[in-house]
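Morning run. Coffee first, then this:
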Amino acid sequence: RYKLLPTLYPLFYSAHTRGLPVVSPLFFDYLDDKNTLSIETQFMFGTGIMFAPVLKPGVTEHAVYFPKDLWYDYNNPNNVIDGVNDHGLSNQSVSLDKQTYYARGGHIIVTHFSSFSNTKETNEKGDYVLDVYLSASGQSYGELYTDDGVSMHTITHDQFLYVKFNASQEHLRSEVTLRFPGHDNKNKIQEINIRGLTNHTKEVVVGDSTDLWENFTFQDGVLRVKSLELPIVEAFMLTYR
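And here it is:
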């Protein structure tokens, strides 16, 4: 659960500043889809993750409703559900050793690089992974909110770090929109995974460098860029082609 803290924090920031729900039923995001009104066994975690938990014992397959969007199985890179052209119920294989949730195309999910047992550890050595899920139009957006994990009223006093991420078929960019000087976040982005690319990636460039980044793979439609060590407090650009 601590791995998803970088996703959870911005949701509570949005709940505090804009009144948006952290967890919601599907119809909150799909008001035009009448089929979502009666669904009680799936829910949205923010706007980028849909959970479809298994609620019966001994189940190896269950039906999941996919609204009109592109959906990525978090556990299986080969399982991409095209809800844009064929939304509705789809039988999905399940097991006890995996979480049944799906990333919505158009979102960037930020997680921790390592596992932790408390929030103090995440603040001190909580490096990040960016999981990019491109939409059918080839775009994606995400955000990161973080503070020192101790101080009170950090939002009221602007004592936090807020970063926006934008991705396309060729670039991933970050923008640091607010950085409180007293919040010295030394954590880094260690890995970036991008799904939904239409072309096989042959080259990766970090920032304005003329040198190609060699530590990457492209397999099963997933671009994995590793060992980046990009400071989260500094804007960056990743180019892939």
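Residues 63 and 182 are 49 Å apart (CA to CA). Good start to the day.
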